[in-house]
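Please, structure for the following, as tokens.
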Amino acid sequence: MEASTAGVRALKTSLFILLGTTVLQAVIVAFTGSIALLADTVHNFADALTAVPLWIAFILGRRVANRRYTYGYGRAEDLAGMFIVFVVALSAVVAGWQAIDRFITPRPIENPWLLVAAGLIGFAGNEAVAIYRIRVGQRIGSAALVADGVHARLDGFTSLSVVLGAVGVMLGFPIADPIIGLLISVSIMVLLWGTVRSVGARLMDAIDPTLVTRAEQALEHTSGVEVVRDLRLRWVGHRLTGSATVEVAAASLHDAEHIAEHAAEHVHEAMGNVDAFTVTPVVHPHEH
């Protein structure tokens, strides 16, 4: 519950920061007519909107498991990830279309110096959001929130490219603006591929091998555990659940269960974002 509350707070804050950034950039678009800035503004607006499905997912994830959803509602985060991919891809297509249209029907850029300010505003807004989302995401164990933060950081550098377009226009190359706009659209699609892979991996129950190693070491370091077998971990939203079978050196079933309980406790201590972790003891063959 505390993790979800922190996640929602991070999303609310970043939503308002990005919306504020978008409004400022939109005003400057009206004054300059820059297609590169329009592309960046559309993308920042889409990024702001991506906070909404994640927000809903965090709230849904608080619901308790029931007979239909026995693992709870944590997977709503993965569905939110799919929606985010769609929205960001759509923003890239819209920005790209506007850039191509500007090649066909050129239009002079007014007040190009304002573009420098707009690019810096976009960078500052995205970087602030990136720092906040990554910190909170790492603290609560939300890969979706961390990925969203990394995405915001990359978008900040995209905003800086608007400054390059402005410099090109001031140096007498007006075509630099739609070129930068088109490059922004292409870069969004390239960067989006990483998010697609991340969301797809989650849907396929992929897990970072280092997490498996940490759980394995926690089990192996438990007194009485001889061998760790069938270790499984899966993400349910921003929380982990899993199980393992361990061969133990025990004289009785009661002792074996006691060792298994200690092993499960060690996993919880080593990995703070684990909810349920079941350890099944098997008496080591040498002890028979």
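The chain has nine helices and three strands. The beta strands are 225-236, 239-248, 274-283.
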